[in-house]
Amino acid sequence: MKRIVLVLLLIFLVGLTAFRVYEEVSLKEKLAKEEKAAIPVKVVHPTKGKFSYQLHFTGNVLPDKQVNVYPEVAGKIEKFLVNEGELVVKDEVIAYISKDIPGMKYERAKLRSPITGIIAQLNLDAGSYVAPQVPVASVIKMNIVKVSFSVPEKKILELHGVKQVNISVDAYPDTVFIGRITNISPVVDPMSRSVKVECMVRNKDYLLKPGMFARVTLPTVTKENVLILPQNAVVRNLETGEIYAFTVKNNIAHKKMLKLGLENEDSVEVISGVSADDLVVSRGNYYLSDGATVEIVE
Q: Strands 267-272, 235-236: parallel, antiparallel or unpaired by DSSP?
């Protein structure tokens, strides 16, 4: 009787062990299948064609020239002959200054504009006392203005050969002003990693005002017969700086490092990394790793 019980107990233990082994194997197979579950992706073929792009920057409108007007003598401002915003010509009298010393008579001094321009500011009121080191007014030259903007160092080469730029301001959204590049700084600002660029703009009707926010657009650049990918097919790793894409062959994703050329908002020029015959993942690529199993969906 005892032998029968032992045999039954042994059979039970063997069966329990076998069941647990089977259960563990099944679980591992299930996990393995889940790990190898195909990731749905959409793909595109790189295309060859014409690629166009523009570079856009922001800057500020500045006067071409701005000078302060100083009196030649000390005294009291008798009166101003001009108001802020008025046009004056070089050597035009803008104010009279009287020495105003009791018991003595002096011919009043004339305060003249050193340049032709616009009275930007009258710093004092009539009746105020002034000295030769005190600026009474400032005059700005506005028939020509400057637009100053910054270009990131990695875009400096894009300025090569560029002589003119298009400029727009919010006040006149339908008007394009033409600027002529006159100066590109020879040094890079170590804080912003950019170079300062200045251009001159004719301002015949004085529409552009110093202090205005300006948008600067470089001429359109076009290249023929280049390999093009949509921006969403390109993966950019901000931590490592890697730029790559995934191609698909036999439902397996392959990581391909890319070298890019021109870029615009929608597309990139591919210099190397993929070919026109490749199937490149355009959706689902941020969830992929090299060698992952994928399923191409429409």
A: unpaired
CB 149 within 8 A of CB 197: yes
Tens digits of per-residue pLDDT, 244-272? 999 999 999 999 999 998 888 899 999 99
Cα–Cα nearest to 207, from 102, 110, 118, 90: 118
Cα gap 230→268, rounded to integer Å: 6
For residues 37 and 210, give the distance between their C-alpha atoms in angstroms, rounded to a whole number: 62
Q: What is the pTM of this model?
A: 0.64
Burial track 230-256 (b if 16+ CB lie within 10 A, e otherwise): eeebbbeeeeeeeebbbbbeeeebbbb
Partners of residue 286 on adjacent β-strands: none
d(CA 60, CA 285): 40
Domains along the sequence of the chain with CATH: 39-52+223-296 (2.40.420.20), 56-61+142-221 (2.40.30.170), 65-141 (2.40.50.100)
Closest CA to 216 of 141, 155, 142: 155
* Strand bridging mode 137-152 / 267-272: unpaired
